[in-house]
């Protein structure tokens, strides 16, 4: 599972970028925190021009963990 504090930070970033829908999928839903290597998200209702802003923030955050 994705750590709750990490999920909250990702949701906050998504809201700031205007992401209307954020879906978590993949192995992070069923594996233990220690086994999770990546997060799989799908997004919807993203304002034009905001997707790559969100993606960039998300990618940089994950690279720093």
Q: What does it look like?
A:
By secondary structure, the chain is α+β, with helices and mostly antiparallel strands. It has helices spanning 4-16, 51-63, and strands at residues 21-25, 40-44. It has a two-stranded antiparallel sheet.
Features:
two-stranded antiparallel sheet, single chain, alpha+beta, 40% helix, 65 residues, elongated
Topology:
Layout: H1 4-16, E1 21-25, E2 40-44, H2 51-63
Antiparallel strand pairs: 1-2
Q: What is the beta-strand fraction? A: 15-25%
Helix content: 40-55%
- Largest sheet, order of strands side by side? 1-2
Number of separate structural domains: 1
Oligomer: single chain
Question: How would you concisely characterize the structure shown here?
Answer:
The protein is an alpha+beta fold and 65 residues long. The chain has helices at residues 4-16, 51-63, and strands at residues 21-25, 40-44.
